[in-house]
């Protein structure tokens, strides 16, 4: 269809009506976009996919049973739609899988209440149901450590200072304003390639924190409890801390590693509940707790990504790829981080198949594992298949040489408003064409600047075009990202549908254009 | 002090400098207000009081141990500050006390998670820890009921349709804008005296809902689970439903009543968790739950208010009163509803004592019980001590005849921005004077209109001046009112301090002015 049209355009061009000269060689196939739109807006399955990834199988901590169940679901769904060569592709050693089997924390005195919280990932559990007391580790200086000697044994230690939530005078949910988009549109390329993760106040100097951990361990605390940022019953649980001497050299051992040392059971608790316990303890009251916390480790294994493709035709060795990370944190269901991305990618694949495309290049989907532990899945994939950076130069594989472009999605469930160009000015006119069908929906911004922190970076790092979309945040950074309430309710259906249509459009555009996507 | 100044002003008046004619006879005693302000802003104890009412003793469901502990705390604190005649004053039969001893709801399959929720007040518990299955009562018509016959026995029934939270594009926290305050300032008196409580969609017609309850009972369900409004792990738990035939006549029996019929255990669950379970069940998955839910009833007793006073001097039979309800719902700690009100009142009493006032009239504090069950404490107090409405006329007691005014506070922890006049135009010039010291802090609006739904209404109903303050909502209606997260963190310290100073100012103004407060 596309080819036929190209020939037609060429023929028309020879007939030389001057207005037709305006037809860009990367002009979108509007008939195909209409097909995507019809299927993607009227018969969308994106919310069903999302629910399968979150409600039914999530959360999806890498190598956990939830991750594997979701991967199996994704594989069979993709296969069901006719996507080819769907397989699990190892990205190398990851460490242990882990999951929660039971968690209940009850305050039995001075006043009964049931605590909102959860184990940190890869935390050990405790055997049986423990009745014990809480103690608040109110340590501001090293001298303060002394007064807790002999007092922590068998106790649950409240480890941090309370974080007081503040009233929300700004809306939690936002869309990008014209003014913000304009700044992005006018931004210059940035050197910040890797991007920086958001950081939150650690509460205490690193060495003092390390000594607090060591004290809890040497004194035989039963478990360590941390108050979470967040409010209103939402909390943020990531990986358990492996206490590490900040003066030591060498790589830090992560909690999932095969060789991780034994650590104390670690619990994160909603701010209001944690703070209440601290206030009760500061008032001199005895806080009695009842803790049931059962977690299970699975054997160390390689991590894996889920890969599938629509084989290309005349240029099938050349690959256009899109993807999102399948893994998540464990206390919610990892909806906006990043089941929405996976659902968009899967739905885009379904739209391409439903439209019966026979692309020139191969269109491949990559659902990554281990993103939350440092982009492990995408990094492993790039190294294994596409190339690597050695010292200051990049060595691409044969497959890498023929690789066209990678589109990533991982910034929550909001509507895409454009594309970060990652400093690659060459792609601007191409993306400008592909955005045309979406301009009327507010999606038209191209920003030369970078965005980081997710799975397009390993591609970008070896000089391959890797992009991420400019996305309306909705409640992403305010409330859902990494939170216990990153659940199905956080998704905005209309936005996901639209994004899937747009992704299919970008993929087929890249797959059928004359050349590979231009590199920087 | 006040009297001396009045004489002085009178003397100055006779000397007749025309500008002095502007001195209103209700002008505030600015030296005294300075004292209140100094003590109330610099040595405030309002947050300590609040923490004692919430963290240490709350929640305070009427007649529960928490209510009694908080009442004992309030009594001893007031006595400690020199407040006189502090006592518990019965407001008549209330019913049973009740509290939660344990609640844990675990989803064991298809995917483990720990559910955020709580028993509804006065719900029975279940014996031991039950492992059972969930079933979703997807009933839209009476015919739908049939398909659940024989299927509910021993199960936990998901009773309601899911309520989907939406992204919050408006801020949760607000202060009243000038534009809103102006509308209030320009409002006419309203006939709506009793005020209306906010109502939320019931989800199904009343008769169908009743039949659903009866089905659950007759089929022997283990417990009924309802999804809550709210989001992000916040839920709203009020009294257990006593299923009542909507065609039956006569008063409804409430769950706390001595003669309440046996009802099923009832659980309220955070929207995201409830909805996830519904989606799993709709997908055909088996949802296995583990429920521990222990509640305890105490014997039926009279309810009581906490009353205390600073005795008047020359007009000690005349009473100026302020108050707030001490009781709360049970799933949070009842901070903005209404420990903040109690803390403001107690702190105002402390400020009056600290300033060493010797008021002309008696200044009395009333901390009410049973407000959440229908203003029972304040209604009982008014009837017992002040008067009652018989048919269309009001019959005041001798004490009622000498009663001056009641100030109530019960609209969350925000700053007071003025006063609702309840249609009483006569008090406008008086309040205008008393507001003067607070105008610069944005507190200057007098609205002729009414506000309802709380404890000034019983006073207003018998024609006694009863007022409630215009209050910045902060997150009151958006998130904290009646919610599981109505906890200490919701209070705004600076606002509570300011309100306490203002309440002390109004109280002493009313206590020392020439006459009783004018009635409507």
TrEMBL record, chains A, B:
<keyword id="KW-0479">Metal-binding</keyword>
<keyword id="KW-0964">Secreted</keyword>
<keyword id="KW-0256">Endoplasmic reticulum</keyword>
<keyword id="KW-0121">Carboxypeptidase</keyword>
<dbReference type="GO" id="GO:0070573">
    <property type="term" value="F:metallodipeptidase activity"/>
</dbReference>
<dbReference type="Pfam" id="PF04389">
    <property type="entry name" value="Peptidase_M28"/>
</dbReference>
<dbReference type="InterPro" id="IPR039866">
    <property type="entry name" value="CPQ"/>
</dbReference>
<feature type="domain" description="Peptidase M28">
    <location>
        <begin position="305"/>
        <end position="504"/>
    </location>
</feature>
<keyword id="KW-0333">Golgi apparatus</keyword>
<dbReference type="InterPro" id="IPR007484">
    <property type="entry name" value="Peptidase_M28"/>
</dbReference>
<keyword id="KW-0732">Signal</keyword>
<keyword id="KW-0325">Glycoprotein</keyword>
<dbReference type="GO" id="GO:0006508">
    <property type="term" value="P:proteolysis"/>
</dbReference>
<keyword id="KW-0862">Zinc</keyword>
<keyword id="KW-0458">Lysosome</keyword>
<keyword id="KW-0645">Protease</keyword>
<keyword id="KW-0865">Zymogen</keyword>
<keyword id="KW-0378">Hydrolase</keyword>
<feature type="signal peptide">
    <location>
        <begin position="1"/>
        <end position="22"/>
    </location>
</feature>
<dbReference type="GO" id="GO:0005576">
    <property type="term" value="C:extracellular region"/>
</dbReference>
<dbReference type="GO" id="GO:0004180">
    <property type="term" value="F:carboxypeptidase activity"/>
</dbReference>
<keyword id="KW-0482">Metalloprotease</keyword>
<comment type="subunit">
    <text>Homodimer. The monomeric form is inactive while the homodimer is active.</text>
</comment>
<dbReference type="GO" id="GO:0005764">
    <property type="term" value="C:lysosome"/>
</dbReference>
<protein>
    <recommendedName>
        <fullName>Carboxypeptidase Q</fullName>
    </recommendedName>
</protein>
<dbReference type="GO" id="GO:0046872">
    <property type="term" value="F:metal ion binding"/>
</dbReference>
């Amino acid at each position: 269809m596309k080819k036929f049209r190209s020939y037609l355009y060429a023929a028309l061009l020879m007939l030389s009506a001057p207005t037709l000269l305006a037809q860009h060689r990367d002009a979108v196939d509007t008939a195909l976009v209409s097909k995507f739109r019809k299927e993607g807006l009227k018969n969308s399955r994106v919310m069903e996919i999302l629910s399968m990834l979150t409600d039914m199988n999530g959360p999806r901590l890498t190598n956990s049973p939830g991750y594997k169940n979701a991967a199996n679901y994704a594989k069979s769904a993709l296969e069901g739609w006719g996507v080819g060569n769907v397989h699990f592709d190892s990205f190398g050693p990851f460490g242990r899988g882990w999951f929660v089997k039971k968690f209940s924390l009850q305050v039995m005195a001075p006043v009964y209440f049931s605590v909102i919280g959860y184990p940190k990932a890869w935390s050990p559990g405790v055997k049986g149901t423990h009745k014990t007391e809480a103690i608040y580790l109110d340590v501001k200086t090293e001298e303060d450590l002394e007064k807790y000697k002999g007092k922590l044994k068998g106790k649950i230690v409240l480890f941090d200072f309370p974080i007081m939530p503040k009233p929300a005078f700004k809306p939690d949910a936002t869309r990008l304003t014209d003014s913000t988009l304009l700044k992005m549109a006018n931004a210059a390329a940035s050197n910040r390639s890797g991007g920086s993760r958001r950081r939150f106040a650690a509460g205490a100097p690193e060495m003092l924190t390390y000594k607090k951990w060591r004290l809890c361990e040497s004194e035989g605390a039963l478990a360590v409890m941390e108050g979470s940022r967040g409010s209103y019953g939402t909390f943020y649980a990531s990986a358990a801390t492996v206490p590490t001497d900040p003066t030591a050299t060498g790589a830090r051992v992560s909690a999932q590693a095969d060789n991780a040392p034994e650590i104390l059971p670690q619990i994160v608790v909603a701010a209001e509940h944690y703070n209440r316990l601290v206030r009760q303890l500061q008032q001199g009251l005895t806080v009695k707790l009842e803790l049931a916390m059962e977690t299970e480790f699975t054997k160390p294994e390689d991590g894996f990504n889920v890969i599938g493709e629509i084989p290309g035709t005349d240029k099938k060795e050349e690959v256009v790829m899109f993807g999102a990370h399948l893994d998540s944190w464990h206390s919610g269901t990892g909806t906006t981080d990043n089941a929405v991305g996976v659902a968009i990618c899967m739905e885009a694949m379904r739209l391409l198949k439903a439209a019966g495309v026979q692309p020139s290049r191969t269109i491949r989907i990559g659902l990554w594992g281990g993103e939350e532990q440092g982009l492990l899945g995408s990094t492993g994939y790039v190294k294994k298949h596409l190339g690597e950076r050695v010292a200051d130069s990049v060595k691409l594989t044969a497959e890498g040489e023929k690789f066209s472009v990678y589109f990533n999605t991982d910034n929550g469930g909001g509507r895409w408003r454009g594309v970060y160009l990652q400093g690659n000015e060459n792609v601007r006119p191409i993306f400008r064409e592909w955005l045309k069908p979406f301009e009327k929906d507010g999606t038209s911004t191209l920003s030369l600047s970078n965005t980081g922190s997710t799975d397009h970076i390993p591609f970008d790092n070896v000089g391959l075009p890797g992009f991420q979309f400019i996305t309306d945040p909705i409640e992403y950074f305010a409330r859902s990202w990494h939170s216990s309430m990153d659940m199905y309710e956080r998704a905005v259906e209309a936005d996901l549908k639209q994004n899937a249509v747009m992704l299919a459009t970008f993929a087929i555009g890249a797959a059928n254009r004359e050349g590979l996507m231009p590199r920087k």
